[in-house]
Amino acid sequence: MKKREFKIPVDAVHKRLYFLLVIVMAMILLSLIAPYLCPNDPNLTDLKLAKLAPSAEYPFGTDSYGRCVFSRVLMGAKVSIFASLALVAGTFIFGTVYGVICGYYGKRVDRTLMGIVDVLLAFPDMILAIAVAGILGGGLINAMIALALTGWTQYARLARSSVMAVKSEAFIQAAQITGNSHSRIMWRHILPNISGPLIVTATLQIGGMMMGIAGLSFLGIGVQIPQAEWGSMINEGRSLMQTAPWVILYPGIVMLIAVMLFNLLGDTVRDLLDPKELEI
Questions:
Q1: Which of 52, 65, 68, 279 shows the smallest number of beta carbons within 10 Å?
Q2: Is the pLDDT of residue 29 over 70?
Q3: What are phi and psi for residue 57, nearest 5 degrees?
Q4: Is residue 211 within 8 Å of 80, Cβ to Cβ?
């Protein structure tokens, strides 16, 4: 008996995509206007207000320095989300261009350039990022550079393999015969036909980059105190888990929700761009 394949109705995927896009865009908008939404100064310290439980004035309570946790979570959203988006955009562009060039020209160009990728992939991503961030020193920019060092390699490998599969197609050969330049063939004919998997990878990587920035900040080699960022807030609240659990609980919950939303968005984009999964 032939096994029946389960396919997702295309209308359901579109509805899920629109729903997630609205939520993600609302979250990005809230993080953009976060300075105007903060009920209190996120960096104002007052030891008399230290470790206050959540209340109307301080919805998420206060930390050990008397700072409003809710205001710091809002300001941390701006740092985490926009840093992740910028990081993914940069690695996506560089890695895609790198991989397309390798796959299109092949031979010596491919062996030389992909050798660099293989060297970087020989090290675990996070371990290498920690080492680079430790050498460069703390700070958001240095943390982004550390994560970008290996973040682009997956786009390079994916773009290279996709180009090698597409460049032998008849429409590419026709473009070559008609006198199109190499750059035009790569960016006008090949790139649009391999962009689907790359876009899916980029969407799924946003949550991973957000966790990476938070992880480096948690270790003290990312965003530096007193700048608000979810990872550094969790690190500051470690010693307060028993006396003031809200200091670590709320940044963790908000980060979990943000990462889940971007991952769900990536899964939905993947379903939409994979016709084998859809029921037309």
A1: 279
A2: yes
A3: -75, -35
A4: no
